[in-house]
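Weekly puzzle thread! Below is a chain. First person to post its structure in token form gets bragging rights.
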Amino acid sequence: MNPKYILLLLLLLCTDLLHAQNAHFTTEGEIEFEKTINMYAMIKKNMGTSSFYEQAYDAFKKSQPQFKVLKSKLTFGDQKSLFAPVESKEITGGGFFGNEPTASQNNIIFNDLKTGMSTSQKNVYEEIFLVRDTTRKIKWKITDEKREIAGYNCRRANGLMMDSVYVVAFYTDKIPVSSGPESFSGLPGMILGVALPHENITWFAKKVTDRPVVPKEIAPPTKGKAMDLAGFKKYLNSALKEWGEYAKPALKAFQL
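Winning reply:
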């Protein structure tokens, strides 16, 4: 081989090694997320067929925006993460559909990725539950599709959870923490974007702050009636059984 080509190959190899050595990985910090709900689509899909629902839906469209945006924060470090809603100072209405569980933020979720355990504080109408169980299992299939989110190059993965909920997620291996917003996890890096296409909901990171995190910032929640996931599902089914078909959206929302 021509010595010039050998020299060129060596230079390219050295450049790649230098980039690899200088690559920065974020192992602790804070991520600001926005949850966006397409209210018109969600309500239209879940509402009943009576004239009362039609009138309420028409009134909602005249007084409320199509998209509702909620903010949340994920703090992570030492292979642990804590996801929590950020309270809004804005006063928002919503009329008859204002308290839809799907369009709210009901959870504070702590994940210990070393032990594979999760602690979730869940608000279910007037009650609070503390659900301790293993981290959620999602069947993921990683694809070749990529996009940039909050300054990080991310790869797409398609998943299935709760037997029937289709999930699209984007994760980055530059944050080597297998976590994400709400209870979405299980990919080889931090999930910075999630879409539930059939539920009309997305979560996307808006800002990632690389900073030291002290242990008290990632402490698990402690408030609520303690039970495991199976017990929580049993409670929901029992509490909402008289709702019939109308219970399905609420059951799904409280288990996300």
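Puzzle host: Confirmed. Bonus trivia for everyone else. The longest strand covers residues 67-77.
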